[in-house]
């Protein structure tokens, strides 16, 4: 793309920034709420203060919000360390504890006493203690004359010093994160807990009701929640799992409101959004929408279809592959929605129109021209080659390593052991112990017949969608030998490979022979694909990304200078953020308006015993028929979900949704299909976050599961 002509025929609103009068778009930094947002929030109904949200002097809401694992949010709902998050966030742990004899995915799980709560090795809960603007300290010694390498070296050295000083003499950990694409830096100090136990989860027929069909869609009727408990030592500090540990006593936990929601109510979402790209140039959006997403949608869709077909045939395969299928489907459907949303918004043209206006502003001043005049010219040059490397890197991983040809992916895990064995490394036994754990986890969720079908499908797509110049050599050799008939190749290769047989892999690890591994056909495919990425793809990709990082930082600073009368929010980067808005429905398309809430009646309307994702449990039907709703009754029904216009993204799954009094009213879990492109371009008319009404979660815990003892821990506001 060249510098745009200035004669764009339509007017473009500066959608990249949030105006002070807007209460919907934006993911705001908690410690800066007093400076930028609190008045707007209060004008829109919020009844508390910024100190109630974020304080280092007293217990505040931030102390009740946790990063759950590495990619979700959760929140404390009792003074005994009880956390609620989404069912899909706890899904992997629920799956790991499930067997044919105790299928907690199918039947649900409720710990009747603390000693029945289930340990989850590797699961962490992270609580932010405080954050601090350290921009000046990070950039100390940085000059404009420095190369990007010199600049990075100075910054990294400064960050190391800041981190060391921040946690000296404590059990905390810390990180320094860039905001506004490297124009600002914050120190974040955390406390990490590693004894986190599963307390309760509804059956998937409730927690995952609607499955992939309803995912990213409104109206929703999904009881998407699960319960965990954080344990600590007797001094309330983090500790490894021990029978001596006691429930953690959080500084703050959320009171739970039973008052419900109505259209126009103030709402606030507090959580750990993962990644947004609101300020990216049109080049990046075009690359994703027109080149990368369509190919990823195709291959993911095929893999999901194969898994689901095999899961429908065998209950054990369903347990093994449900987590994989769900994880892939989430991204797959999101990409489809983003393509459609960006098309409906005329997104690329809107970005280009903004860039034309920006370019005119730059060219109107010589000093700005000197600083910013070549930004788009440099983007043109970089993306011309970067987009190919970006696609090849992602697509090769989809084929060989990310639930594609699964045994090939396992084989790739052995590359380091092969090199260590050939060098007689003294650390080989330690590496083999690691591989033993990896292999055990792999085969726990593996079926060779599913893998054969996946192998055939992804190998065929790789040949059709990736130019031969960017294919691995072992793949090209295989293609030539089987003449593109990968059914024949699978019949020949699967019996030969060690890596699709658990006993053979166990024997290999016990008596490790690197020569045997190097001869394995799946290791050959894995090694060749990795070599392609390591030697031909990723070095160039890294070089371009380093250039983009510097250019994006300059472009971000320029956008902020251009929009100096606006309030900017930084892109999400998995740090604690706050968004606020109001409960409201929306117009989905011509003549279709969606109300802001759903009820248990809608669950029953979708009931279909012949479809796994819509097979309503008998107990839930019984409660519905008897209208046995207890105190969760709302006008003769039970509320299930609601929507609002809070700005959310991945990572906000499990986030608390709070009312004007700071009481918990819902658990965020999804976004509506029409506005799913809000990671790139917020659409105020249709961007809606979807939340589980907390009353439905309490109804399931209390009336459905009979686990009212958990309700007794909570602080309920009638």
Task: Give the gist of this structure.
By secondary structure, this protein is of the alpha+beta class.
What is the CA–CA distance across the termini? Answer: 58 Å
Q: Write down how many β-strands occur, each being a DSSP E stretch of 2 or more residues.
A: 22
Summed up, the domain count is 2
CATH class of the largest domain: Mainly Beta
Summing up helix and strand content along with how strands pair, one would put the structural category as: alpha+beta
Q: If you average the pLDDT, what whole number results? A: 94
Helix count equals: 27
The helicity comes to: 40-55%
Uncertain stretches of 5 or more adjacent residues: 1-21
- Beta percentage is 5-15%
Instruction: Tell me about the largest β-sheet.
Output: 11 strands, antiparallel
Shape: globular
CATH topology of the largest domain: Thrombin, subunit H
Cα-based radius of gyration, to the nearest Å: 26 Å
What is the level-2 CATH architecture name of the largest domain?
Beta Barrel
């Amino acid at each position: 793309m060249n510098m745009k002509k200035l004669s764009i025929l339509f007017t473009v609103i500066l959608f990249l920034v949030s105006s002070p009068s807007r209460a919907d778009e934006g993911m705001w930094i908690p410690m800066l709420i007093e400076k930028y947002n609190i008045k707007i929030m209060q004008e829109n109904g919020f009844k508390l203060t910024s100190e109630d949200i974020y304080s280092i002097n007293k217990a505040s809401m931030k102390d009740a919000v946790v990063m759950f694992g590495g990619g979700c949010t959760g929140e404390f709902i009792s003074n005994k360390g009880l956390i609620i998050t989404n069912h899909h966030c706890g899904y992997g742990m629920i799956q790991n504890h499930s067997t044919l004899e105790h299928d907690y995915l199918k039947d649900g799980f409720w710990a009747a006493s603390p000693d029945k709560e289930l340990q989850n090795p590797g699961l962490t809960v992270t609580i932010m203690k405080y954050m601090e603007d350290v921009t000046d300290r990070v950039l100390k010694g940085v000059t404009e004359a420095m190369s990007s390498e010199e600049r990075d070296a100075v910054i990294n050295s400064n960050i190391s010093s800041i981190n060391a000083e921040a946690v000296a003499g404590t059990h905390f950990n810390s990180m320094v994160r860039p905001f506004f694409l490297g124009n600002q830096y914050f120190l974040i100090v955390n406390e990490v807990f590693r004894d986190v136990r599963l307390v309760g989860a509804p059956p998937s027929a409730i927690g995952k009701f609607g499955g992939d069909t309803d995912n990213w869609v409104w109206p929703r009727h999904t009881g998407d929640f699960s319960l965990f408990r954080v344990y600590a030592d007797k001094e309330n500090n983090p500790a490894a799992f021990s029978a001596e540990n006691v429930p953690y006593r959080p500084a703050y936990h959320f009171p739970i409101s039973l008052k419900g929601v109505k259209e126009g109510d103030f709402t606030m979402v507090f959580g750990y959004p993962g990644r947004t790209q609101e300020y990216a140039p049109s080049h990046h959006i075009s690359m994703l929408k027109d080149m990368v997403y369509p190919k990823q949608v195709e291959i993911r869709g095929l893999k999901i279809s194969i898994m689901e077909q095999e899961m429908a045939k065998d209950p054990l395969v369903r347990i093994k592959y449900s987590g994989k299928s769900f994880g892939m489907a989430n991204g797959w459907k999101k990409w489809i929605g983003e393509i459609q949303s960006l098309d409906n918004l005329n997104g690329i043209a809107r970005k280009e129109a903004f860039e034309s206006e920006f370019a005119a502003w730059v060219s109107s001043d010589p000093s700005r021209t000197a600083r910013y005049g070549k930004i788009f010219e440099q983007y043109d040059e970089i993306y011309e080659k970067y987009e190919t490397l970006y696609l090849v890197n992602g697509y090769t991983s989809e084929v060989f390593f990310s639930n594609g040809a699964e045994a090939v992916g396992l084989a790739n895990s052995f590359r380091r052991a092969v090199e260590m064995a050939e060098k007689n490394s003294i650390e080989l036994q330690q590496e083999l112990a690691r591989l033993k754990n990896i292999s055990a986890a792999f085969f726990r969720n593996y079926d060779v017949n599913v893998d054969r079908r996946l192998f055939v499908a992804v190998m065929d797509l790789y040949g059709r969608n990736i130019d031969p110049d960017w294919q691995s050599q072992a793949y090209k050799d295989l293609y030539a030998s089987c003449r593109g008939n990968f059914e024949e190749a699978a019949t020949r290769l699967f019996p030969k490979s060690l890596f699709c047989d658990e006993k053979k892999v166990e024997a290999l690890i016990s008596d490790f022979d690197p020569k045997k591994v190097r001869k394995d056909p799946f290791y050959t495919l894995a090694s060749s694909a990795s070599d392609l990425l390591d030697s031909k793809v990723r070095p160039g990709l890294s070089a371009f990304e380093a250039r983009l990082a510097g250019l994006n930082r300059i472009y971000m600073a320029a956008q902020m200078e251009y929009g100096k009368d606006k309030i900017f929010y930084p892109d999400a980067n998995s740090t604690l953020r706050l968004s606020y808005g109001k409960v409201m429905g929306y117009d989905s398309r011509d003549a279709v308006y969606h109300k802001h809430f759903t009820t248990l009646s809608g669950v029953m309307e979708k009931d279909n015993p012949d479809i796994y994702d819509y097979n309503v449990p008998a107990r839930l039907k019984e409660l519905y028929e008897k209208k046995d709703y207890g105190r969760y009754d709302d006008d003769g029904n039970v509320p299930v979900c609601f929507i609002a216009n809070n700005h959310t993204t991945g990572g906000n799954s499990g986030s608390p949704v709070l009312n004007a009094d700071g009481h918990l009213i819902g658990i965020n879990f999804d976004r509506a299909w029409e506005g799913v492109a809000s990671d790139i371009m917020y659409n105020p008319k249709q961007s809606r976050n979807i939340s589980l009404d907390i009353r439905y979660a309490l109804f399931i815990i209390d009336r459905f599961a009979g686990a009212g003892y958990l309700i007794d821990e909570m602080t309920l506001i009638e």
